[in-house]
Amino acid sequence: LPEYMLPGFMMQIDALPLTSNGKLDAKALPEPNALAGQEYMPPRTKTEKVITDIFEEILGISPVGIEDSFFELGGHSLKATAAINAIEKKTGIRLPVKDIFSSPTPVMLAKKIEAAGEGEYSPIPKAEQREAYPASSTQKRLFILDQMEGSSTAYNMASALEVTGNLDLEKIQQAIDRLIQRHESLRTSFVMTEGETFQVIADEVFYQVEYEETDSYSEADMESFVRPFDIGKAPLMRFKVAKERNRNNYILLFDVHHIISDHQTLNLLIEDFSRLYNGEELQPLELQYKDYSEWMRGRNLESQRNYWKEVFKEEAPVLDLVTDYPRPKIQSYKGAQVS
After folding, report:
1. What is the pLDDT of residues 169-195, one digit of tens each?
2. Hey, which of 151, 242, 309, 327 would disulfide with 228, CB 3.0 to 4.6 Å?
3. What is the DSSP letter of 24?
4. How far is CA 303 from CA 226, 307, 308, 323, in A?
5. Pairing mode, if any, of strands 210-214 and 237-244?
6. What pTM does this model have?
7. Domain 133-296 class in CATH
8. Looking at the domain that runs over 3-115, which CATH code has it been given?
């Protein structure tokens, strides 16, 4: 078997739990303990202690020894990026993400950090207050695509959650109001002035949660919910509660434009919404997206620009697949899934 298919660890149990039909009851299996049977080796240096603390926080496992592998403990690429960011914040040394794949234990990473010498962590500063901020490169690209394609839903990011039990619609509206106030991106719209794309952040934006009662919710209902956004008007998000008649069952529908969000952001928004609905007080956000985009504008990216100019110095070949029909001048994004 290739390495990625080998179990990171194994555990022994006295007997397999069975259902009344004599089949394996997977839900009754004990939670695996990634640290079981491993010899714990405590950190010996300050750097090793910093890294083991970071691993414990990101992976939710304790204690982590200096010989324990980040990936065998449940880490993956997104968590690896979070670990590299945390290491830079604590040590001032920015390691390439590939280092955590080639050196996945605290003792190996500590050697790379110590070999790099001393570093100084410079946090992203808060941007000064303005009426509008130049859009980031990613936002500019999506703005141009929106202008070219008009009323398209190609960059809508929709998500649906099924909820069983009682829902308080007033609390849902309050949670959405607080979510919009918490995240500047949900109060951001986009304009073009003298050929330059700007992001405009409103002080306040109100959104009325949509509500519908239905016999049963179908894929067609979801398709009617996902509609084009006018990116010149905030919020570039919509939210709907659909209640199934005669059942204590709800479908919560989110739809966000990609110009203010990605899939990781969508997960954070849903998590924040859930906590706000449950009455939790969330810590204020230290930074917003405009702080990042302003910081990026001040960085010298000339070496990266030169790299890509070299990569694309010759014209890129056209992907010339055989098609049943002529290519349309404007993409329709119509397609199908076949299982």
Report:
1. 999 999 999 999 999 999 999 999 999
2. 151
3. B
4. 40, 6, 9, 39
5. parallel
6. 0.73
7. alpha beta
8. 1.10.1200.10
